[in-house]
Design a protein that fits this description.
- This is Alpha-L-arabinofuranosidase 1 catalytic domain-containing protein.
- It comes from Thiobacillus sedimenti.
- Pfam families: ASD1_dom.
- This protein is an alpha/beta fold.
- The chain contains ten helices and 24 strands.
- The protein has two domains: 156 residues, Golgi alpha-mannosidase II (Immunoglobulin-like, Sandwich), CATH 2.60.40; 332 residues, TIM Barrel.
- The strands form five sheets. Strands 1, 2, 17, 18, 19, 20, 21, 22, 23 and 24 form a ten-stranded mixed sheet that branches. Strands 3-6-7-10-11-12-13-14 form an eight-stranded parallel barrel, surrounded by five helices. Strands 4-5 form a two-stranded antiparallel ribbon.
- The two termini are 25 Å apart.
Length: 493
Amino acid sequence: MANAAHAFMGMGDAACPPNVQVAPAAEYHVAVSDRVIKQLKPQFFGFSLEWVGFQEDLWDNQAQKVNPAVISALQAFPGAVYRYPGGTVANYFDWRASVGPQASRPLRRAVDWKGPLATRFGFNEYLNFLKAVGGQAWLVANLYGDFGSEEPATVLSSQAAQWATAARQANANVLRWELGNELDRGQYQWPPERYSARALEIARAIRSADPAARFVNLLEDYDAQRWTSAKSYNTETSRALASLLPDQALHLYYDGPPGGPPVPHRLKHLCASAAAVQAGSGRPATLWLTEHARWPAGKTSDPDWKQNWGSTSNLEGALSVADMVIALSQTPGVEGQFLHSLAGVGGPWPLFHRTGAGLKPSAVYWALRVLREGMLDQVLETRTASRNDSEYAGGYDIRASLMSNAARDKFALWAVNRSGKAVQLKLAVRQLAGRTPSARQVSLADANPNANNALNGQRLLPRATAVTLHFDASGEAWVSLPANSVSALSIDH
């Protein structure tokens, strides 16, 4: 299999999507070229912070601070981006109601599952939170209005300009302003020309207050409207907003049929969306996944749909999320990915569980932490070939990505193994031919893919092991991946 592994070397542009190849033989193998295909910055990791759920479960109103366990856990992601005030709730957010003395903040409706409430975790509290965790600001501008009622663009433009002024005065260093949230679907159904006109007006107002402001417009991740396709929607909005020179956002949910297709399906749509941006604007897409997560299987209308929520935060969910993150590291044009969500503990996608021992991180948190702590900045072109013993609908068991530093004296391998069996992976790295470097492997794994941390936070924790790798004269070495695992291998030579 040595020749087959090296056949991946020296390929041209990075593949989009970076799908895993089916391996007809018994081997799993990963082949790496010496070509850098992208740079990973700390902002590659992020979280969509939904202020309502965050305030309800992770904010201590009496002490006027975020739960210390949450702060401690998130300090492991220095430079991460926190999207505020979140997704749907951003469409009803008035930043003015989130500042000033807590006692004087007005009650406002923000979600359909709760009555009016005051914004205790407001803009200033958010900025203090960023300082505590070492995070970066990302704000979602309100393009819609108030809960249940659309407001004129002139009103929202004025509010947005005031918010941009306040952010600038607070030295918030907003990385991006995201222009609305999912206004193409659901109750809104805004056609591309309506969204583009509103986004353009509000973006200009923000830029009048902060000339350095940079923007992100949301693309469609599926055909949400009967009268147009996602391809057409993305092309038209990109053309209409080209003067802003914006980046683009996508929301991808996966591995929970029927609403969440397999990861390769979502990657294919991402690449098609990038092509639509290029066609519409004449510029390459710069993509951010401002929401992504494993989707609970079943239909939201099913009476027992909530029974499937656990798969979004257990080990199975962690494998899915790690698979997507690893794939995105190999995808050209993707600048960052924000997990959905950093919010409450009672719904789907909790990053923390409320246990008898206090708030404890979920399996998905630990998977992301394994990857973040094993990250290097230069991503090398990586080709993975895998069997499919797991019978995963995406068609493979493993996916991997190799990174390095500029000096090429450190390497880092990210890998996910969806199989219920440990696998021996043949890693081909020509730069390491004939070497026997020391390595440290950190893995999150369990024999049961349904294992979770909901009881006491102790079932799933990363384990580190010192290993020695023997690369032969052709640059191949064997790496062991535990069953149902997310691993980061750090190699020094």
